[in-house]
């Protein structure tokens, strides 16, 4: 009976969180941190409300040595970070998650988190909405070093892998190309090169988590947090090319 009461209380708690978040994607939730703390896995380090993308990357980096970001309940993580967290791993709610993702992508000036899997490798990626991409970096609510074309300011220098490419693969100066393309802000200078991977691991830990910033033909960085660094050795990954042979 005692166990049943605990489960019931937890379900009611999650329902309260989800209801509050559904009312407004950009609104501060009213759930106090001391209540959330009860449901944060002990292995998690320093999770708190996200100030900007640099702060978010630092929190990810600080949890490279554990499975916190893969085991924590998505509703709890969403309430802590103050950002939408979408669980694409749950097939039962996939349709609703996809609908919410499309709405966030088109109608909200925000970054949001997707939990996904590729070839059984779980990962998290930071998605930017279209209005967010169209906003100049200094005016972005969660903007930071990456938006200005710089490496994350709170992290050590990354390890880097550059892929060979030919000039006609690159779209750095030719975007938008067509009437249906959506123009977005890009910094005049960037340290990020096309078809490259910039990554961080924790060499002192037995965990294989890896934080990745990957670029494609436009050199705009995309952020991933993978549960296994062997993703660098396979073409079954979001950037569709093998980083390490």
Features:
7 helices, seven-stranded mixed sheet, 16% strand, 245 residues, alpha+beta
Tell me the layout of helices and strands.
Blueprint: H1 2-23, H2 33-37, H3 53-62, H4 68-71, H5 74-81, E1 85-87, H6 94-107, E2 111-118, E3 121-128, H7 130-134, E4 159-162, E5 196-200, E6 210-214, E7 222-226
Parallel strand pairs: 1-2
Antiparallel strand pairs: 2-3, 3-7, 4-5, 5-6, 6-7
Explain this structure to me?
The chain has 245 residues and is of the alpha+beta class. Helix content is 28%, strand content 16%. The protein is built from seven helices and seven strands; from the N terminus they run H-H-H-H-H-E-H-E-E-H-E-E-E-E. The protein has helices spanning 2-23, 33-37, 53-62, 68-71, 74-81, 94-107, 130-134, and strands at residues 85-87, 111-118, 121-128, 159-162, 196-200, 210-214, 222-226. The chain has a seven-stranded mixed beta sheet, sandwiched between helices. The chain is globular, with a radius of gyration of 19 Å. The N and C termini lie far apart (55 Å). The model is unreliable at 15-24 and 26-30 (pLDDT under 50).
């Amino acid at each position: 009976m005692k166990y049943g009461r605990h489960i019931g209380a937890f379900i009611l708690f999650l329902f309260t969180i989800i209801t509050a978040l559904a009312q407004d994607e950009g609104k501060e939730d009213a759930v106090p941190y001391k209540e959330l703390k009860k449901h944060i896995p002990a292995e998690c380090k320093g999770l708190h409300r996200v100030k900007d993308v640099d702060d978010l990357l630092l929190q990810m980096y600080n949890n490279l040595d554990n499975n916190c970001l893969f085991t924590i309940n998505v509703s709890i993580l969403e309430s802590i970070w103050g950002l939408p967290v979408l669980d694409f791993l749950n097939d039962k709610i996939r349709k609703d998650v996809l609908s919410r993702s499309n709405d966030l992508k088109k109608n909200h000036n925000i970054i949001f988190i997707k939990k996904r899997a590729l070839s059984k490798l779980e990962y998290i990626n930071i998605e930017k909405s279209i209005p967010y991409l169209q906003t100049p970096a200094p005016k972005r609510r969660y903007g930071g070093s990456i938006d200005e074309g710089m490496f994350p300011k709170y992290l050590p220098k990354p390890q880097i892998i550059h892929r060979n490419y030919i000039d006609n693969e690159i779209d750095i100066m030719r975007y938008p190309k067509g009437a249906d393309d959506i123009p977005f802000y890009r910094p005049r200078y960037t340290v990020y090169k096309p078809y490259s991977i910039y990554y961080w691991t924790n060499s002192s830990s037995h965990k294989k988590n890896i934080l990745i910033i990957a670029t494609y033909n436009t050199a705009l960085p995309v952020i991933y947090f993978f549960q296994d660094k062997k993703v660098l050795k396979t073409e079954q990954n979001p950037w569709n090319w093998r980083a390490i042979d």
